[in-house]
Design a protein that fits this description.
Elements: H1 10-27, H2 29-36, H3 41-68, H4 72-100, H5 104-108, H6 114-129, H7 132-154, H8 161-171, H9 173-190, H10 195-221
């Protein structure tokens, strides 16, 4: 894997590497179905429940970023983002759950699908065991890819009110500010790193970007454990 000079922003390098993955995400029938309104509602329900389970562990990973952060500003930021996962995004999901006719116990008693289990296990293993800059890299796709998807889909919109609400959430100015702040932190953190450290960051970013595609595939197919 060829790396560019440390003078190049690491986020530029990261996006260059996952452009083919992102193209496949935008072409995925789950994502296309959000704008056409043709996505099977049961697939969206399955995805939303799994996403709620995922976000609980993603919030833990963000809290670990706060624990390992080098200064108070970043400690506050990542703790706030962790709270946002559990409060703001959950509020959106609970709106969806009401539309599905699901009670909270129906959601939280659902087992994780294989992809969700694998993704969160990888996420948490890095968050707990690796240094701050690697934690930043492993959590970044959930920020950045969702923002880019939201921006891409908002140009088309959706005839389905539920799908439009999902699109609006990730295309919002508020979410954009959060993502842009994290991108700046990552670029700054990478400036003083060795090539080896940057390679580790790139590896984590590519891995969880792949998991993002797999998560939508999981939702679309309503993935079950095979045995």
């Amino acid at each position: 894997m060829t790396q560019k000079s440390n003078k190049t922003k690491i986020t530029t390098i990261m996006w260059d590497h996952i452009t083919p993955i992102f193209d496949k995400i935008l072409a995925h029938p789950f994502i296309k179905g959000l704008t056409t309104g043709d996505l099977d509602r049961t697939s969206f329900q399955f995805y939303t429940v799994q996403d709620a389970l995922y976000l609980k562990d993603y919030a833990r990973a963000l809290s670990m970023a706060a624990v390992k952060a080098p200064d108070e500003e970043k400690i506050i930021l990542f703790n706030e983002h962790s709270m946002g996962c559990l409060i703001e995004e959950r509020a959106m999901q609970e709106h969806f759950f009401k539309g599905f006719g699901m009670a909270p116990e129906d959601v939280w008693s659902t087992p994780m699908a294989p992809t969700c289990q694998a993704y969160t296990s990888y996420l948490l293993s890095v968050a707990y065991a690796r240094p701050f800059h690697e934690v930043l890299a492993v959590v970044l796709p959930c920020y950045w890819i969702y923002w880019e998807v939201g921006k891409a889909l908002t140009e088309k919109g959706s005839p389905d009110d539920m799908y439009q609400k999902w699109i609006d959430t990730y295309a919002s100015d508020e979410f954009a500010v959060s993502v842009e702040t994290v991108l700046e932190i990552i670029d700054h953190a990478a400036l003083s790193l060795t090539d080896t450290d940057r390679s580790h960051m790139l590896h984590h970013f590519i891995t969880t970007s792949r998991y993002e595609w797999m998560f939508w595939e999981m939702g679309y197919k309503k993935e079950q454990w095979p045995v």
